[in-house]
Design goal:
Blueprint lengths: L1 H14 L3 H18 L8 H35 L4 H12 L3 H12 L4 H7 L5 H12 L7 H15 L4 H15 L2 H13 L1 E4 L10 E4 L2 H14 L17 H18 L17 H4 L5 E3 L5 E3 H8 L14 H5 L13 H11 L15 E4 L14 E4 L1 H4 L10 E4 L7 E4 L10
Antiparallel strand pairs: 1-2, 3-4, 5-6, 7-8
């Protein structure tokens, strides 16, 4: 009887939140309701943008706190012999979430003492950033040592503060590969083992499904097709703005278009300047397992990049001070034309890799040629006066009070500086 009363007291204690927690939750609920009633249309664009940044930080802190709570609850149940799976199932049913999501929270809460865990708790990085870093740390060899592992995690966390999860994932893979050279060949072998394509049976409505697991090489080829033919108006004749296909339908039509070309084009015919651009340094060429990126941002090994070239001609540009080699191939034959040539854009792909705006990770394939010295002010269309800019950042450049400007960077030949509005570029840049 006494043991039953004790168990009942424990269950009651678990149901009743401590006063401190209750007060915090009441404050958070009131703040959430107040935030939901804000009239965003009454605020300026800058105020809304700043507010969204603060809201994102708050949301990250709340998510990290929930992860800590889930980990603490799982630890208490573990003392009573209950498995993490049972706790996840209980919370998933109570919160209306998937078990996998609850498992992720429990694991994240258990990593609260790591550099990434502390950054997530402070709202400096998202939960997805933290998971990517945790997976990267897990992939390190056990022989690396605790201090080196901690330094790796801290450095990657610092990098995560300024980039999107996709860029962090690629950088984490690159750093792990650099620390574990043997994993490069394993990575490629794993991709080859996992690759698959399954064409499903014809359904009653005449459609079929195609399920694929792509290697890095295959993904690069698919991304190329989607970039070239998967945008609005791609593969179909229509007036600008009248393409009502969904993104998925445009992707389907783009791949079908490319497959049709592959079936009917003369293999000996010219294919243009380049299909896929991969930046590879001489040092990387000596290491087949080194990871490089295509102009669309896909990460693959040097070995895979070389295999993609096959018997196709190579375009090699040597970027040195003065750009002597670039001018020898006369890439700037028509500086009086406003639109850059395919050859000029290709050289900038090799030189810049992507958008040159500080902190932007948009790849070259989705960037535009930008005149560093504006065309309207006599700036020529040359490689030396060119820089890559993604559409949003390219559109920020202008003569108005809110317009950014660009100037050549004297400390980095071939690069440019982006000057924010209201900056005296002669004294402040």
């Amino acid at each position: 009887m006494e043991s039953e009363r004790q168990n009942e007291r424990e269950r009651a204690a678990e149901r009743i939140a401590p006063p401190e927690l209750a007060a915090v939750l009441a404050l958070a609920e009131a703040a959430g309701e107040a935030l939901g009633s804000v009239d965003w249309t009454a605020e300026s664009v800058d105020a809304v943008a700043e507010a969204l940044g603060r809201v994102e930080t708050i949301a990250r802190k709340v998510e990290a706190a929930a992860a800590c709570g889930a980990a603490d609850l799982a630890a208490r149940h573990a003392k009573k012999g209950r498995s993490p799976g049972g706790v996840a199932a209980m919370l998933a049913e109570r919160l209306g979430l998937a078990r996998g999501a609850i498992h992720g929270r429990i694991e994240a809460g258990g990593r609260r003492g790591t550099p990434a865990g502390r950054a997530a708790a402070a709202g400096e990085i998202s939960a997805e950033h933290e998971r990517i870093i945790a997976r990267a740390v897990k992939g390190l060899p056990g022989t690396l040592g605790g201090e080196a592992t901690l330094r790796f995690a801290a450095d990657l966390t610092e990098y995560a503060r300024t980039v999107a999860p996709a860029a962090l994932r690629a950088e984490a893979a690159r750093r792990v590969a650099a620390l574990c050279p043997a994993k490069g060949a394993e990575r490629e072998a794993h991709q080859e083992r996992q690759r698959s394509a399954r064409l499903g049976a014809v359904r009653p409505d005449g459609t079929s499904t195609l399920t694929m697991v792509l290697t890095a090489r295959s993904r690069a080829l698919v991304e190329r097709a989607l970039c070239d033919h998967g945008g609005p108006g791609g593969t179909v004749a229509c007036e600008p703005g009248s393409d009502d296909r969904s993104p998925e339908q445009r992707a389907h039509d783009a791949l079908t278009h490319v497959w049709a070309l592959a079936s009917g084009v003369d293999p000996a015919a010219a294919r243009g300047v380049a299909a896929i651009v991969v930046r590879v340094t001489p040092e990387q060429l000596d290491d087949p397992a080194a990871l490089v990126r295509t102009d669309a941002g896909t990460q693959l090994s040097v070995r895979q990049a070389v295999s993609m070239a096959g018997a196709n001609p190579w375009f090699v540009s040597l970027l040195r001070e003065g750009r002597e080699e670039l001018h020898r191939i006369d890439v700037d034959a028509r500086p009086d034309r406003r639109i850059a040539t395919a050859l000029q854009r290709l050289v900038l792909y090799a030189a810049h890799g992507g958008c040159t705006f500080p902190g932007c990770d948009v790849p070259a394939r989705r960037s535009q040629y930008h005149h560093v010295v504006p065309w309207s002010r006599g700036g020529p269309t040359t490689v030396g006066n060119g820089a890559l800019g993604c559409p949003p950042h390219h559109g920020m450049v202008g003569d108005g009070p809110a317009g950014w400007t660009t100037v050549p960077d004297p400390g980095a030949p071939g690069q440019c500086r982006w000057i924010p509005p209201g900056t005296n570029r002669l004294t402040d840049a």
